[in-house]
Amino acid sequence: MPVQQDQPRVVLSARGLGKDFAGFTAVNDVDLDVEHGRIHALIGPNGAGKTTVFNLLTKFLTPTRGSITLLGQDITARKPAEVARLGLVRSFQISAVFPHLTVLENLRVALQRPNGLATQFWRSLSSLDRLNPRADELIAQLGLTEYRDTRAMDLSYGRKRVLEIATTLALDPKVLLLDEPMAGMGLEDVRTVAGIIRDVARDRAVLMVEHNLSVVADICDRVTVLQRGEILASGDYATVSTDPRVRTAYMGTDA
Ligand SMILES: Nc1ncnc2c1ncn2[C@@H]1O[C@H](COP(=O)(O)OP(=O)(O)OP(=O)(O)O)[C@@H](O)[C@H]1O
C-alpha cells in the first residue's frame, strides 16, 4: 500500500500523560511524539514506568492525566479494541501463536481477525485459503518462507518471535508497539529481528521498550529515557547516551 501523502509525520503523541495508582505516581507529565517511518525506543531502569506508558497508550489503563492522539484523533477515552482498529497495535495483544498450527495457518488466523483482539474459530482453516497470498507475502517479508509449513512449536525461539511480529503485521498497523522484542534471544536472532524491525518500520511507526542498548543504538532513531515515571532525556542515541543524568540513572548509585 502506498504511503499516504497527507499522512502526518507524528502519528502517535501523548501530552502530559500521567498515571497514579492509589496515590503512587507511576507515570507523570510524559510527552511523546512517535513518527511515521521511525523507530522510537522507550528505555529506563526497572520500574521507570515503561510498561505503564505502553498500557496507557494502548488504553489497557486509563490515564489519570493528559491526552493521547493517534493519527490526528484524540483516543484518550477510546477502548483498546477501537484503538487497535484505528491502527495502534501492541505485539503481545495478538502474539498468541498457536503451537500446533503451521506458520501459514497462524498467519491465516491472524489475517481473519477483525481487530486483532478476537479470534473466530467458526471458520475452517481451509476456508481461509483466500488469505494465502497475503500470508505468503508476510512470510516472505519476514524471511520465514523456508518454515511456511512448519508448526510453530517446532520453530526456534527467535523464529517464534518473528512469527509473532508477522501475526501483528497481519493487521497492517500504523503504529506498532513492541514490548522487549529481543528478550531472551541469542545474538544471531537479535540480529535477524533487528533487521526485520528496521524493515517493517519503513512504512509505519515503531515504538519499542528495549533493554538491549546496543540494539537501541543500532536501529532506533529516537530514544526517550524514563526514570521514576518522568522523562529524563529524549533525542537520538548519541545525545541521550552521553547525557550525564542518563549515565547516572543507569550506572549511578540510585539506579
Ligand atoms: N497496577 C499497579 N498498581 C500499583 N503500582 C503499579 C501498578 N503497575 C505498575 N506499578 C508501579 O509503577 C511503577 C512503574 O512500573 P512499570 O511496570 O511501568 O515499570 P517498567 O519501566 O516497565 O519496569 P520493568 O523494566 O521492570 O518492566 C513501578 O513502581 C510499579 O511497581
Automatic annotation (TrEMBL):
It holds the Pfam family ABC_tran. Gene3D superfamilies: P-loop containing nucleotide triphosphate hydrolases. Keywords: ATP-binding, Nucleotide-binding, Transport. InterPro entries: AAA+_ATPase, ABC_AA/LPS_Transport, ABC_transporter-like_ATP-bd, BCA_ABC_TP_C, P-loop_NTPase. Transmembrane segments: none annotated. It comes from the Bacteria. One of its GO terms (molecular function) is ATP binding. GO terms for cellular component: plasma membrane. Residues 12-253 form the ABC transporter domain. This is ABC transporter ATP-binding protein. It comes from Paracoccus haeundaensis.
